[in-house]
Amino acid sequence: MIGKKAEKENYVSTDEVYKILEERKKGKRPLTYEQQRALEHAEKFKEGSAAAQKLRKRLDEVGISEQTVVNIINIAPKNSKLLGHIIESESAQINDEKLKMIKEILGIKD
């Protein structure tokens, strides 16, 4: 993709990467080396697309950044400690109420 300008820039989950690259793979031109490697990676680590979309919608409703939502979906934290690391690494400002909502959505009990 050297020399091409991005039309828009946004964060996408691994599931979305897989879906986008699978569609491009069906096109007239073959995937670039980088796209093929990204597709292989996404194929290994993708979850059920419908479940990821539902989770993204619920997390979007909490009112946190798109980047934080995507990282939560991609990492799928199973405990408060890992969720805390994701939030800290994003420098996200999440109050206790939002944190409680995120934990409920993810099914984190601790």
| Helix proportion | 55-70%
Instruction: Note the gap between the termini.
Output: 44 Å
Q: Secondary-structure element sequence? A: HHHHHH
Quaternary structure of the protein: single chain
Number of strands: 0
Strand content: under 5%
What is the gyration radius calculated from CA atoms? 16 Å
Summarize model confidence as the mean pLDDT: 87
Structural class: mainly alpha
Can you describe what's shown?
The protein is mainly α and 110 residues long. The chain folds into two domains: 14-45, no CATH class; 49-106. Helix content is 64%, strand content 0%. Helix 1 crosses helix 2 (33-45), helix 3 crosses helix 4 (66-75) and helix 3 (49-62) runs antiparallel to helix 6 (96-106).
Summarize this structure as a short list of keywords or feature phrases.
2 domains; 110 residues; mainly alpha; 64% helix; single chain; elongated
Tell me the layout of helices and strands.
Layout (H helix, E strand, L loop, with lengths): L13 H12 L7 H13 L3 H14 L3 H10 L4 H10 L6 H11 L4
Helix pairs in contact: 1-2, 3-4, 3-6
